[in-house]
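HOLO CASE FILE
Compound: zinc ion
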Amino acid sequence: MQFKDIIGQHESKMRLLHSFKEGRLAHAIMLLGPEGSGNLPLALAFAQYIHCAQRNEEDSCGVCPSCKRHASLQHPDIHFSFPFFNKPKAEGGDKTNSGNYASEWRAALLETPYMGIEHWRTSITKENKVLQLSVAEADFIVKRLSLKSHDGGYKFLILWLPEYLSVPTANKLLKTLEEPPENTIFIFVSSNSERILSTILSRVQTLVIPKLSDDTVREGLLQQGVAAQVAEGITHYVDGNWWRAQLLAHSEDPNMFFSTQFIDWMRMCYTKDVAKIVSWSDEMHKLSREDQKEFLMYALDQVRQNLILNYAGKSLARMNAQEQQFSEKFSAFINDRNAESLMELISDAFYDINGNAYSKMVLSDLSFKVHYQLRS
Ligand SMILES: [Zn+2]
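Model generated. Tokens follow.
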């Protein structure tokens, strides 16, 4: 990955480049930014830049042997660590480390380094497993970093989402963080510093990566040839998350946009996540009234399809793959007692919005009512 492949984040790129050129590079840095901001792509581009044999002032060359190995994620001096779940006992159980997922990791990263944790989870398991960096990972990291660097230059350990480090793993890593092997640079890539142990935080130099602005996301989508109106809708919805923007922009399924929103919405209704409901209603409010109504029609249909799924089975329910996967669990919350009320509530909201009611209020109000129906 080169810096030029990263959307926006000009200032973050410059700060990284300066720290390196001025010899102020700490041996442990943390790129702290929200999901989809490009913090992992920045880590990749930075490591590639430092390894590049023909780098210029602003970017790696992209063509030297080192850059080519980076592009295929095969550079011997770049090591990755990331959350995973322990394999069953028969397959090594608690000795599981990220090496057991190396090929899945490479495939997911080659697809897009903008991915979020949920995408990573679904690429290694279809179940709702708890991901973490469990204790065997610490030994695995220390062992890999003890190897001599291949080209005599820097070795990198890019640790994605240190907020998933278990306490024993974090404690085991402290010594290595404090006294790293020669020419070793740790790059932590985090989206939530509040969940990281203070002992780790105090040992890294943090660079805050801001959320992408709407202008940057819109511009990026337009440059990819996405139609202006579609780009506008996606930009409003994704709130600076470039990964989600890509998902929606390049989906071949026209329902994908709605189905992603519906899934998120049902989750926040179920948990009654007030903050999320408010910001979701705000975002929906920015869409045109026609789009809001279309979404509600879609939601109505999803409730119906889940009821069908429950009473008549998979073959009769009309769902795409994403909807099916979500409904495997979600359909348990739709039954003949609440389905009718849910459909009524959604229809009422539809007619309110059709009649020019203030949609922000209608949608947040609807969300709380849906919550009680799902929990009934
Ligand atoms: Zn190069």
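CASE NOTES: DSSP finds 17 helices and five strands in the chain. The beta strands are 28-32, 78-81, 155-160, 184-190, 205-208.
CLOSED: yes
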